[in-house]
Amino acid sequence: MIKTQVQIPDDLFDRAKQVAAAKEWSFAEIVRRGLEYMTRVNPPSRQPGKEWRLPEPAPMGLPLVPEDQWTALSHDDGETA
């Protein structure tokens, strides 16, 4: 086991001591169980993967309309008058 020191706000320490007394556990047991709970409900995040790179573009053939019509077509709502 590892022995360590932590700083705990006074009110949290007092509440933890009250829980320990009510359950007849040591303060250390309260801390261990609290850490076990937190590590169980907050598992480590995924490991970083390889650096992602944008894939090379695929050839898509020639455009269906001339480039000078792209802006007009992008604003067209598709309705005919």
Q: How would you describe this protein?
A:
The protein is mainly α and about 80 residues long. It contains three helices and no strands. The longest helix is centred in the middle third of the chain and has 15 residues, at about 25-40. The radius of gyration is 31 Å and the shape is elongated.
Q: What keywords describe this structure?
A:
81 residues; mainly alpha; elongated
Radius of gyration of CA atoms, rounded to a whole number: 31 Å
Q: Runs with pLDDT <50, length 5+?
A: none
The helix content is: 40-55%
| Topology order in helix (H) and strand (E) letters | HHH
Described by strand count, sense and barrel closure, the largest sheet is: none
Shape: elongated
Q: What is the structure about, briefly put?
A:
By secondary structure, this protein is an all-alpha fold. It has three helices and no strands. It has a domain of 32 residues.
Topology diagram in text:
Layout: H1 10-23, H2 27-41, H3 70-75
Helix pairs in contact: 1-2
